[in-house]
Amino acid sequence: MNTASAPETPQGNGLSRRTLGVPAITLMIIAASAPLTVVAGGVTTSFAVTESLGVPLGFLLIAAILTVFAVGYTAMGRYVTNAGAFYAYIAQGLGRPVGVGASLIALVSYNAMQIGVYGLFGFQLSMFLEAKFGFASPWWMWIVICIAIVGVLGVNRVDLSAKVLGVLVALEFLVVIVFDIVSLAVAPEGVTATTLNPAELFGPSLGIVLVFGVAAFMGFEGAAIYGEEAKDPKRTVPRATYAAVAIIGLFYAFSAWAFSVGLGPSNIVGASQASGPDLMFVFMSDHVSVIFVDIMNILFLTSLFASLQSFHNAVARYFFSLGREGVLPGWFAGTSKHGAPWAGSVAQTSIALVVTIGFAIHGATGGAAALGEVGFLYPVLTMFTWLTNTGAMGLVLLMAVIAAAVIGFFRRDRRGLGMWTTLVAPLVSGALLAWVFIMIIANFHVQMGQEAPTAATYVLPIIVLVAGIIGIVWGRALKRRNPAVYQQIGHGTEPGAYGTELVDVVTEQKL
Q: Is residue 171 very low, low, confident or very high in pLDDT (cuts 50, 70, 90)?
């Protein structure tokens, strides 16, 4: 056999199998969305920028859209189990070149989300230590340390990461629930349903409310990434996906409503504009002990850490999937003795380190000074804001494309499923997600905190789109240059495919 066209044999024995159950995957999904961070930062930002009282209902509407999206998404997941998730779904639904394009968009988007959160983490930890202990330290130093810790967990057993994230998420929920109770007890204008009035949402600000709210759900689609490591992919992944959407949607909506009750509906917008993400902590400092507020600050940091670990795991598995199928160099398919994708983990760690160094150098050589009086917020206003919004934009685009891929996948063979699952649900959710994506592009400068568009407003979305175009071109090139690799694209875990127990290509090489 001519072995020149065959992918290289991966290092290791592949991902760990039948390791994760519904609770573990659900917790990792929720960890990516960072509940405490969303309530403290996302809710206040939404109220401040949109000036709409419909924020709580906005979370419920997004949850409804994503639930409809999940109908087709999870149905396709019963037949496609691949750590590349988006990449594999789109490759099998819309064609291999489009799948490769999607894979690069996913890599850019997940890396952007993860690295952006590092910016907020480094800033918050630096400020907390200075406020409590008078210890002044550069924000980037804490990011480098955190990158190392995340990287170590990333190359160990995935259930270890799940256990760590589970504890952190449980503590986040606990502290937010306490905040909700305090808010409802204070209620300066009474426990009112003003912010639950549909008229507050369905108005001119509807689009921008959804634009800011959808970022809070990013990571919910990640259940499919762990399909190969799930105890029962056909049941575990759908259940974890639906559970995550329901829990996130209801919890965020309730907490946003409680937030508005605690400040008073007439004050929530103005207070959010005045204090921003600090509003939650300022409010609690007036009603609970200093110790509890300090605990909240610490859990805010662990919330960010949990999100970092979750997104790191997702990126590592994308690298693994692409390396296994020959789209990227074969060494990316390397796994550790624990069944963790060590090569992908190291790659993500390296990217995060390089980008962090880049922002640190830029901030030290004039980037922070250019922000004037708010220069100390440099990592938040640039690294965090730029990258997380870029990542969210890319992931919303991919979800809209996946909805079309579901229709394409079931077009010739509905596999006994009904029209609602194979056509109507993906069509409706795809149209709505495409509309949200358009709204994100139209309001990207607002998300970036800019009064008017700047170069970054255009460059960052272009990077995401160019990554997709490069991927499509590369996919077509593989079809001409390496047909064996081309055939593996998006099919890496099917019987007889490279990387499974029935590795026909590798077996022939040995004979």
A: confident
Determine the Cα angle at 76 with ends 71 and 82, to 5°.
125
Domain of residue 44 covers 3-510
Beta bridge partners of 230: 20
**Which residues does 278 contact at the CB level (< 8 Å), separation at least 6?**
none
Q: How many structural domains are present in the chain?
A: 1
Q: How far apart are CA 213 and CA 69, in angstroms?
A: 16
What is the average per-residue pLDDT within 297-308?
88
Nearest to 76 by CA among 492, 414, 424: 414
Could you say which DSSP state residue 340 is in? Answer: -
Residue 140, both tokens: 């980037």
Question: For the segment 65-86, what is each residue's pLDDT rounded down to a tens digit?
Answer: 999 999 998 888 888 877 667 8
pLDDT, tens digit, for every residue of 356-396? 999 999 888 877 777 776 677 888 888 988 899 899 999 99
Q: What is the largest CA-CA distance in the chain?
A: 79
Name residue, tokens 């499923």: 417
| DSSP result, 487-500 | HHTT-TTSTTSTTS
Angle formed at CA 493 by CA 488 and CA 498, multiple of 5 degrees: 50
DSSP state of 12: S
Q: What is the CATH number of the domain that holds 210?
A: 1.20.1740.10
pLDDT for residue 476 is more than 90? yes
